Amino acid sequence: MYDLHVHTRFSKDSLSEPSKVIEVAKKKGLSGIAITDHNSMQGYMSARETARKLEIELIPGEEVMTSGGEVLAYLISEEVRPYRSPEETIDNIREQGGIAAIAHPFRGRSIRSESTIKLADFVEVANGRSSRKENEKALELAKRCGKRGIGGSDAHLLREIGNVVTIGGLKADGILIRGSSYRPLFIIYSSIVKLVREL
Ligand SMILES: [Zn+2]
Hints:
Number of domains: 1
Structural class: alpha/beta
CATH superfamily: Metal-dependent hydrolases
Bound molecules: zinc ion
Order of helices and strands: EHEHEEHEHEHEEEH
Number of helices: 6
Strand content: 15-25%
Number of strands: 9
CATH topology: TIM Barrel
Distance between the termini: 19 Å
CATH architecture: Alpha-Beta Barrel
Shape: globular
């Protein structure tokens, strides 16, 4: 189980200490996480040592702001520069051998253009801070574009870590929504898991 969308204090809107993020991930039984700070890889860098000690797989990541909305970058070796077009940003991620995912396409100003989505590897179809409706629409969009879905908590607070997990990490074998800030109950959307498996 991997949480593929987690913020630390290297994002302006989070106070989470990177080493604490790893400790909480371990406590919640995750096998790995991706730290995806806004336009920064510093959270990932700071968390590396704790991740190694606690044997948590730490995926390098960044949530990159583009002129059209946010793109999640994984397995990148250097920071991706923000505020360029979504297409240029995805290109830059790919050039580095990284993986690009369209973040929460139905929340706020986000990337929804099918031609752009087709350039990415994944669509984030379950985000812990999006509504159920927004996540369902994201899943439909992913299917229309022939893209597989991933999910993550989008945790800005330590207690949100692991609320949404992707089974198999970037292999994306399925997604489990275990809880969210809007719905404190633990819910398993088995239909989403099934649909994602079919993509
Ligand atoms: Zn985020």
